[in-house]
């Protein structure tokens, strides 16, 4: 793999927080939530960062997205060090990297219509809205499977799955190169999870952006990940291709996580892999015909 294939590279990330012991004269302490984490996200792929609650995966995502400053380490995006960006340069980075959060209702302003929510990133960055706000919003709503006639509605008028699609549309608005999904489907029903995951995969194929997919549900991860990195106590303990990590885990912590996942019938899993291979072959054939 050449450096040209790497979209985002994090090296030696450390994040410490100040805490204080209980009591009036409690002693100040430093808690290290992320400890020497390094990872790479390649163009067009999905790197899943998995681990139990408190493992440091969401903090790592926020460091990569520059929503939080690092204590130590560097973040590079398309070969450029973005660790200390601020002001206008940071605004530019925000256009390249977007985040979809776990709870769509807490991340969407309840007083704003879908149109205002979807166009907000462009307005924040003082960028023109192609075709006007209404037409632009309607087009994005169609792309994520929402009724464009509902662009004047408010978040509370949608289901959880629909609200998450609004969050996806908002992320797409600025044409990002990397989307960070921070537990983006964990709050949804299983059937809705599958729909959103299929949508994310289709959008990735169309646009070619990369995903950093934060999750604790390994069954979900297996459906979307290209590669997997496993975190425990602030560190990455294992990483590799998805099937390599799932089928031949090397770290005891990874084996423990996988043991807690409901067993899949081997015939079903073999059928899933065949279907994925056939789907990839069809997509490659379609791309070849379009390029001819």
TrEMBL record:
<dbReference type="InterPro" id="IPR003439">
    <property type="entry name" value="ABC_transporter-like_ATP-bd"/>
</dbReference>
<keyword id="KW-0813">Transport</keyword>
<keyword id="KW-0067">ATP-binding</keyword>
<dbReference type="GO" id="GO:0016887">
    <property type="term" value="F:ATP hydrolysis activity"/>
</dbReference>
<dbReference type="GO" id="GO:0005524">
    <property type="term" value="F:ATP binding"/>
</dbReference>
<dbReference type="GO" id="GO:0055085">
    <property type="term" value="P:transmembrane transport"/>
</dbReference>
<dbReference type="InterPro" id="IPR027417">
    <property type="entry name" value="P-loop_NTPase"/>
</dbReference>
<feature type="domain" description="ABC transporter">
    <location>
        <begin position="19"/>
        <end position="258"/>
    </location>
</feature>
<dbReference type="InterPro" id="IPR017871">
    <property type="entry name" value="ABC_transporter-like_CS"/>
</dbReference>
<comment type="similarity">
    <text>Belongs to the ABC transporter superfamily.</text>
</comment>
<dbReference type="InterPro" id="IPR013563">
    <property type="entry name" value="Oligopep_ABC_C"/>
</dbReference>
<dbReference type="Pfam" id="PF00005">
    <property type="entry name" value="ABC_tran"/>
</dbReference>
<dbReference type="InterPro" id="IPR050319">
    <property type="entry name" value="ABC_transp_ATP-bind"/>
</dbReference>
<dbReference type="InterPro" id="IPR003593">
    <property type="entry name" value="AAA+_ATPase"/>
</dbReference>
<dbReference type="Pfam" id="PF08352">
    <property type="entry name" value="oligo_HPY"/>
</dbReference>
<keyword id="KW-0547">Nucleotide-binding</keyword>
<protein>
    <submittedName>
        <fullName>Peptide/nickel transport system ATP-binding protein</fullName>
    </submittedName>
</protein>
<dbReference type="GO" id="GO:0015833">
    <property type="term" value="P:peptide transport"/>
</dbReference>
């Amino acid at each position: 793999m050449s450096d040209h294939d790497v979209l985002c590279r994090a090296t030696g990330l450390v994040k410490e927080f100040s805490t204080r012991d209980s009591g009036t004269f409690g002693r100040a302490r430093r808690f290290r939530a992320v400890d020497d984490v390094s990872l790479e996200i390649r163009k067009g792929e999905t790197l899943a960062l998995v681990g139990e609650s408190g493992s440091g995966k969401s903090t790592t995502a926020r460091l990569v997205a520059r929503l939080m400053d690092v204590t130590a380490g560097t973040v590079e995006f398309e070969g450029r060090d973005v660790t200390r960006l601020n002001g206008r340069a940071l605004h530019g980075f925000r256009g390249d990297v977007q985040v979809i959060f776990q709870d769509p209702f807490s991340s969407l302003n309840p007083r704003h219509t879908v149109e205002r929510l979807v166009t907000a990133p462009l307005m924040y960055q003082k960028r023109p809205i192609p075709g006007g706000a209404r037409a632009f919003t309607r087009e994005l709503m169609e792309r994520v499977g929402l009724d464009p006639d509902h662009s004047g509605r408010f978040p509370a008028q949608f289901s959880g799955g629909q609200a998450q699609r609004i969050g996806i549309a908002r992320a797409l608005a600025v044409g990002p190169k990397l989307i960070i999904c921070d537990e983006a489907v964990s709050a949804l029903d299983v059937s809705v999870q599958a729909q959103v995951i299929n949508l994310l995969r289709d959008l990735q194929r169309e646009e070619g952006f990369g995903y950093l997919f934060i999750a604790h549900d390994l069954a979900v991860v297996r459906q979307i990940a290209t590669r997997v990195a496993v975190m425990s106590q602030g560190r990455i303990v294992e990483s590799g291709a998805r099937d390599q990590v799932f089928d031949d885990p090397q770290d005891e912590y990874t084996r423990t996580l996988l043991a807690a996942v409901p067993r899949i019938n081997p015939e079903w899993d073999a059928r899933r892999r065949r279907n994925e291979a056939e789907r990839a072959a069809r997509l490659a054939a379609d791309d070849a015909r379009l390029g001819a």
